């Protein structure tokens, strides 16, 4: 029987997928090193390609232009994986929402931040600096900052559902206070500049948020 009109067979190669993933990881690692070490403006796609050992066209085909590279570097630093992960799908967010007590939710989040910030803070600050001169970076900076603020409002509402959130201040105001303290800048001040350890930072943050956010005697 003739196979001229037979449907084309789809070819799936696990090895090819592994190679593509390894190439992507190498490109993002090289981009991270250069964005953090040299700055966004001084970094070129050609320089990233040289460091990653790939062709420039490979970067454009797999990830995109320089702003796309920075976005992926930031998103993967947040998720801790090779891809962006929506907030509601992250392991610590799932555990946080399953926790019953407000103090447990706060502790889960504070300790998760202590694991995230070592990889996120350097690229986040590189993005902040680039936002001052590059419109694409400025747009990304605003987008991520606004997304973080929205997520903090969800966090505060989750605390409110326990019945333990203080009610003498607006939820939006409490969310903004959390937003100001969960930013990489706060981590850099206490860990990089003052020499705090990650566990010390996490426990301080959990204690501070319990005192700041929850109802009870805060004298």
Features:
single chain, 219 residues, mainly alpha
Question: Could you walk me through the main structural features you see in this protein, from its secondary elements to its overall organization?
Answer:
This protein has 219 residues and is mainly α. The protein has ten helices and no strands.
The number of helices is: 10
SSE order in H/E notation?
Answer: HHHHHHHHHH
The count of DSSP E runs of length 2 or more, i.e. the number of strands, is: 0
Integer average pLDDT: 89
Structural class: mainly alpha
Spatial separation of the terminal alpha carbons: 87 Å
How does the major sheet shape up? none
User: Helical content, roughly?
Assistant: over 70%
* Oligomeric form: single chain
Segments where pLDDT lies below 50 for 5+ residues? none
Strand content: under 5%
Q: Report the C-alpha radius of gyration, rounded.
A: 21 Å
Query: What general form does the structure show?
Result: elongated
Quick synopsis:
Helix content is 71%, strand content 0%.
SSE topology:
Blueprint: H1 14-38, H2 45-52, H3 56-62, H4 66-79, H5 91-98, H6 102-131, H7 135-160, H8 171-181, H9 184-193, H10 198-213
Helix pairs in contact: 1-2, 1-4, 4-6, 5-6, 6-7, 6-9, 6-10, 7-8
């Amino acid at each position: 029987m003739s196979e001229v009109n037979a449907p084309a067979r789809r070819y799936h190669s696990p090895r090819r997928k592994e190679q593509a993933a390894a190439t992507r990881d190498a490109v993002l690692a090289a981009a991270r090193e250069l964005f953090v070490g040299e700055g966004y403006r001084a970094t070129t796609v050609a320089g990233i390609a040289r460091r990653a050992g790939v062709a420039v066209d490979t970067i454009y085909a797999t990830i995109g232009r320089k702003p796309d590279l920075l976005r992926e570097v930031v998103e993967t630093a947040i998720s801790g994986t090779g891809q962006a992960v929506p907030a509601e799908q992250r392991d610590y967010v799932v555990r946080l929402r399953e926790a019953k007590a407000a103090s447990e939710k706060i502790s889960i989040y504070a300790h998760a931040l202590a694991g995230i910030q070592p990889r996120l803070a350097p690229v986040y600050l590189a993005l902040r600096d680039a936002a001052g001169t590059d419109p694409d970076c400025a747009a990304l900076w605003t987008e991520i900052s606004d997304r973080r603020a929205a997520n903090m409002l969800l966090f505060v509402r989750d605390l409110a559902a326990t019945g333990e959130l203080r009610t003498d201040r607006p939820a939006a105001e409490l969310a903004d206070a959390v937003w100001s303290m969960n930013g990489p800048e706060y981590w850099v001040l206490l860990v990089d500049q003052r020499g705090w350890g990650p566990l010390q930072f996490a426990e301080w943050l959990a204690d501070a948020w319990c005192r700041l956010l929850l109802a009870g005697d805060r004298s």
